[in-house]
Amino acid sequence: MGAQETDIVIVGAGPAGIFCALELVRRGFPGRITMLDKGLAVEERSCPKLSVGRCVGCEPCRITTGFSGAGAFSDGKLSLSPEVGGDLPDLIGADAARTAIGEVDGIYLAFGADERVEGAGARPEVDDIRRRAIKAGLKLVDCPLRHLGTERARDLYARIERHLVESGVDVRFRTQCTQVLVEGDVCRGVAAEGPEGPFELHARRTVVATGRRGADWLERMCREHAIAHSSGPVDIGVRVEVRNEIMQTVNDVLYESKLIGYPKPFKNKVRTFCQNPGGYVSQENYDGGLAVVNGHSYKDRKSPNTNLAILSSHNFSEPFDQPIAYAQKVGELANMLGDGSILVQRFGDILDGKRTWKKELDRGNVVPTLPDAVAGDITAAMPYRAMTNIINFILAVDEVVPGFASPETLLYAPELKFYSNRVKMDARFETSVRNLRCLGDSSGWTRGLMMASVMGHLAGGYAAEEL
Fold this sequence. Notes:
alpha+beta; 21 strands; about 25% strand
């Protein structure tokens, strides 16, 4: 197709890319804005598993790719505190992050987000939870949040998508970026492949916002083009599922319990993440057929269970410095033991040193909300250090939430977060390669829907000022 021209190309139509484009439009940017995404338009994104009852291995996965990215199609929670969502405040300052959160929250509200804020009241109950957390050696991060809901987030992002298209943004789906075009220390655009074949798109400014799904690809680009970056921690963990009755107080008071600990003997950071009251455990597929576990929370459809992730952070520097590749190997081993499916095991069986059998799941109080998960032994796949951290953390959480460490509590694996590569940049998100910005979870600076949106919102403003 040859070379094409644009003023700004945004690679990735997740929250960071969307809010970058929104801010350019809001400021009346007169140039050409082109957005590329390997997935589908939001109105075309639906997981076939809802109708056929099992994962059919869509390529690319309709849950992790397409307009709005993976975050909005999991549970759609907007954390309203700069203490949550990654390390962006370290780059831009806590006050700037707090102000931008307010601006972005206002935009979400304007497009139809629920006005209700969860976890903003009932202080005596929160204080009681915090006291128990302190006694157990854990830290409770008190964070109000706005819950979009998996199904309502779809409608909200469909409105944003229409707004961008009607405002003249050239949004191209089923188009995969294959290469960042760098000459010397200057980015000239990208190479991509769309429905009509490969092409080059030359741009005055390039924004890469590929999300967790594209973190591995961005890391390769950083190595290939000497884009300054460093290796950050990688999160390896499980998704835990319990009955709603166990989590009722926390669900009612906080909606999401953000607990952090450093359990013995290794004292790695372990945390809870992405809690879904009345939610459903789900499967996501990454490149190479890697199946990982996640969680959904709907506004209008509820299960009898609550699920949340427990993630153990690990750092690698010398002689091995590729934490994303390490996490992928852990995931591949878990997939191998599950014959390509997600593994599930009862916590009591882990403590007893035995695998879980399907007949044992069938007679328990906690009925898996991921019905095609395979009962087995996740400890045969998880590294000893990570598994020890997770077990000891669960026992500590049981002091805060009695019953959390019940023998029937379910653990699904693998839960992996691919944002360990951190791109070095200044407070305006400019990288060591001129005219190139990297945003969102793939940049290593954000972890979640709100902070990725904030980073895109700010970057759009900077780009509008420059051109």
